[in-house]
Amino acid sequence: MQTNYLKKYVISSYILVWSLIILVAGPASLIFHAPPVVMWIVRNLISWSPTYLLLIGWKKFRPGETRMEFVKRCFSGRIRPLLLLFSFGLIFGISIVSLGILSVLENRPIASYIDWGSVSLPLSVFLAFTSGPTGEELGWRGYMREEFHQRYSFLKSSICQGLVWCFWHTLLWVVDSDFTDWRAVPYIVSNIVVITSLTVLMNIVLERHNNLLYSVLMHFGFNIVYVFLDAGILLFVILTVLYPLVTLIALLIRQYILAKESGI
After folding, report:
1. DSSP class of residue 36?
2. Farthest-apart Cα atoms in the chain, separation
3. For an engineered disulfide with 238, which of 30, 59, 95, 98 has Cβ 3.0 to 4.6 Å away?
4. Domain residue extents for the chain
5. Are 127 and 119 a contacting pair, CB within 8 Å?
6. CA-closest candidate to residue 63, choices 3, 152, 146
7. Is 131 exposed, middle or buried (0-12, 13-18, 19+ CB in 10 A)?
8. Among candidates 99, 72, 244, which has minimal Cα distance to 162?
9. Of 126, 208, 136, whose CA–CA distance to 169 is shortest?
10. Torsion sign, CA atoms 96, 194, 221, 28
C-alpha cells in the first residue's frame, strides 16, 4: 500500500501544535502568568511548528527529495517588487476596507478601533512578521500545496489546503479568543471562509510565481491589522462577505488569463 505522506503530515501538524498549546502556552499563561510580550514570543515559537515538523521529520514526509532541493524550489519563482507590494496591499486593503465599512455602520472613527497595546510598535511589527507569516508558509504553501496539487484540481486543492490550515487553529478559537458566547459561531464561520479564501488568493499568485515570499507577505498583510485591532464580531461578518467576493473576482481574472494564454 502506498504511504499517504500528506495525511501523515497533516495529522502530525495538528498533534504537535495542540500539544504545544496545552503543554507550553497553557502553563506559561495560567501557571507562570507570563507578561504579554513573553506570551507573544511563546505563540510565535508555536506558530513555527509546521516548519519544525517538516524539516525535522523530512524523511517521513518526502523521502525521495532532499530538504535543500525542496526549499530551493519553494523560493525559485521570480520576485517582482510591484507584485510583492500588490500581494501585501490586497490582503491588507481588504481588512482596511472592512474596517471602514464597520466604522460607517457603527458611526465610529476608524482610529477608535485601534489599540496600540503595551508592546512598542517596531517590536509588534517584528513579532507579527516572525510568527505565522514566516513560521507557517514552508509547511502550508510549500509542502502541503505541492501535495494537494498532485491530487486535485486548482480550486479543490486550494479549498482543502484552506480547511486544513483553518482547523489547525481550532484550539486557539477556544483559548485565545474574546468570542466565547453566541459570537463564537459567526467567528468560527468567518475563520473558515476567510482563511480558505485567503489560501485561494495566495495560490493564484504562487501559480504564476512560485516563491513563498509572496505568500509570506500576504500572510503578514492579513495578520498585522489584527495585532492592533479592537473590534467586535460585526467586523468578522463583514470579512466573511468581502473575502469570497474578492476571491471570486480573482478566480474569474485567473480563468480569463488562462483562457487567453491557451488561445481559447
Report:
1. H
2. 64
3. 98
4. 5-262
5. yes
6. 3
7. buried
8. 244
9. 136
10. positive
